Amino acid sequence: MAVRYSLFLLERRAPGPGVEVRVAPWGAVKILDGPESDPHNLTPPDVIELDPDVWLRLACGITSWAQEKDAGHISAVGERDDLSGLLPLAR
To answer: In this protein, which residues make up the domain named Bacterial SCP orthologue (predicted)?
Structure first.
């Protein structure tokens, strides 16, 4: 429930179709303005994948985006692969 609610908060903070944030198996949201996915491929050009524990640490401000990225805990593809400006969620 914490993952789903925090993804909801992220989606409210930065609505848009440009970046897909995936926290498998609990949820995924599309955020930020930018190019949408093409009709043949439903995945946006920018995709960020995180494990639930990594996501919750970031959402709560326990660790930083740079720390998790440097540790190899974040898989990010595309030009907008840094959510540090949106995290932590409670600020």
So the answer is: 1-89
CB under 8 Å to 61, separation ≥6 — which residues? 87, 88, 90, 91
Alpha-carbon gap, residue 52 to 45, rounded angstroms: 22
43 pLDDT tier (thresholds 50, 70, 90): low
pTM of the model: 0.90
Phi, psi of 32 (to 5 degrees): 65, 140
Please give the average per-residue pLDDT across 67-81, as a whole number. Answer: 95
Which contacts (CB < 8 Å, 24+ apart) does range 70-73 have?
Answer: none
Block residue for tokens 């908060």: 9
Residue type, 64: S
Q: Which residue has the tokens 């932590």?
A: 88
Pick the CATH number of 2-77 from 2.130.10.10, 3.30.1050.40, 3.20.20.190, 3.40.50.720: 3.30.1050.40
